[in-house]
Amino acid sequence: MIKTGIIGIGRMGRIHLENLCTQLSGVEVLAVMNPGKEGQQFAEKWGVPIITDDADLVIKNPDIDAVIISSSTPFHADYAIAAAKEGKAIFCEKPLDLHLEKVKEALDIIEQHKVPFMLAFNQRFDPHFNEVKEFINSGKLGDLNAVHIISRDPAPPPLHYLQSSGGLFLDMTIHDFDMARHLIGSEVMEVFAKGSSRNYPEIGRIGDIDTGYVWLTFENGVTAMIENCRATNYGYDQRLEVFGTKGMIKTENPLKTTNQYLDAQGVHLSRNQDFFMDRYTSSYLLELKAFFHALVHHIPMPVTGMDGLKAMEIAIAAEKSRLENRPVRLSSQ
Ligand SMILES: NC(=O)c1ccc[n+]([C@@H]2O[C@H](COP(=O)([O-])OP(=O)(O)OC[C@H]3O[C@@H](n4cnc5c(N)ncnc54)[C@H](O)[C@@H]3O)[C@@H](O)[C@H]2O)c1
């Protein structure tokens, strides 16, 4: 039985806690830390033995083998550092921190203490996107030319979340940067980004954007274009397309149901799924399974701290590009 503690029980912490309690055998949630009562009450429902607002009671608990960090972003790195020093395996929500120096410091300490560490880029475990990767690996698409990723949320998170999120590129596009790297299998050479806050001027007032466009040029010559928006009126929109010399593969949005209603006006389909909790349900479970599988079998984690660092460097270059309205080369930021 791997004894686990979770730090931060908000939207993501609840998904992880529920998955750990209901879907993973061989794992026991021994402790949960959350500063607010709401998260603690949620943990009570699942009968977690230790529920606290003191992170040390999780991190320094000698019975705990693995720590899941799903607090608000600015606390990830300090918790990861503390957990590494206690020799715990770490599964950490993205991004590891908002500052590159802090990420490097945390990764160095994780390395020194030789603890298993996985960054939660869940979309790599999505069965639709995973099949796209398999098509690429099989050679069926030939040589890749371009990748196009569209990721649009139905509505923005609250302003207090956005204020500590690091901005659209670090908070949201970071998944797409990782996906583009993962699919293309090369490193980004140059970034050009644009953005606006026409939908939510209040997001503009805190220095962030609600819509972003990023063009990436990879070292192997493949290009990727990423489109993000914090709001749609048609639900969650998560699509991608990979275009190669032998063919093209694209992932469309799974709809809420597969029903079709036909009438004199035409054929009507169901609506897009609501948000990440519905669309990525299986990926959240599969990423946890992958983490514990790697832990038990002493094999490398499927997503590393270096993957997190690379995606972050792209996000920082994208923000620089947007602010300076020019392409930014990654090596010369
Ligand atoms: N992988 C994904 O698809 C995905 C989706 C959403 C969010 N996230 C990431 O997950 C993390 C949490 O996001 P969320 O949407 O659950 O946010 P949230 O605001 O719903 O939850 C954050 C939780 O952290 C708690 N918290 C605040 N300060 C804390 C502290 N000092 N120590 C411990 N806990 C603290 C809050 O009380 C809250 O319960 C963020 O880093 C975010 O980037 C990932």
Describe the structure concisely for a colleague.
The protein has 333 residues and is an alpha/beta fold. The chain folds into two domains: 114 residues, Rossmann fold; 179 residues, Dihydrodipicolinate Reductase, domain 2 (2-Layer Sandwich), CATH 3.30.360.
CATH-defined fold name of the largest domain: Dihydrodipicolinate Reductase, domain 2
Strand arrangement across the biggest beta sheet = 12-11-7-10-9-8-15
Q: Spell out the CATH superfamily of the largest domain.
A: Dihydrodipicolinate Reductase, domain 2
The percentage helix is 25-40%
Strand content: 15-25%
- Helix/strand-derived category reads alpha/beta
**What is the CATH class designation of the largest domain?**
Alpha Beta
Q: Biggest sheet: strands, sense, closure? A: 7 strands, mixed
Report the strand count: 15
N-to-C CA distance: 46 Å
Alpha plus pi helix count:
13
The domain tally reads 2
Instruction: Report the order of strands and helices.
Output: EHEHEHEHEHEHEHHHEHEEEEEEHHHE
From the spread of the alpha carbons, the general shape counts as: globular
Topology:
Layout: E1 2-7, H1 11-22, E2 27-33, H2 37-45, E3 50-52, H3 56-59, E4 66-69, H4 76-85, E5 89-92, H5 100-113, E6 117-119, H6 127-138, E7 144-152, H7 159-163, H8 168-171, H9 173-184, E8 188-196, H10 201-205, E9 211-218, E10 223-229, E11 237-244, E12 248-251, E13 260-263, E14 266-269, H11 276-279, H12 281-297, H13 305-324, E15 328-329
Parallel strand pairs: 1-2, 1-4, 2-3, 4-5, 5-6, 7-10
Antiparallel strand pairs: 7-11, 8-9, 8-15, 9-10, 11-12, 13-14
The protein binds nicotinamide-adenine-dinucleotide.
The site of nicotinamide-adenine-dinucleotide has 26 residues, from helix 1.
